[in-house]
Amino acid sequence: MFAEGEEVLTEFKLEEAFIGYEGIVHGGVLAGILDEVMWWAVAWHTGRASFTTELLVRYRRPALIGHTFRAKGRILRFNQRIVETEGEILDLETGEVCTSGSGRYYLLKGDRNREALLLLDYRACSEEVKRKFLEAKEGND
Q: Domain holding 35: CATH number?
């Protein structure tokens, strides 16, 4: 995943193990990916971990196995406790949005936030990401 402006993005290609119907990515996998990019949009912009409290997914077109996709998430609004997001998954080979959705995330604070951030694996992250979240782990909520 990477941040670009106000969005968090990732690109991916899925294999046969993720089939729902023949040749089509399972909808639950797409929902999970959408939730993940929206969660990371929250984390990136707030520096805090969160829990998903609501996830609405719209399946617009079949997502074909073997195609390359870009998922992106962004924040719409937030307050001290709840962040509202939106996201989409774009088929890079057809240029069409196959999945879109929105979510609501409950921000963690204090010890719960630090404990959640400790559970993340930072090995494949950029130095910028490591700095941002390691600082939050040390007490900056």
A: 3.10.129.10
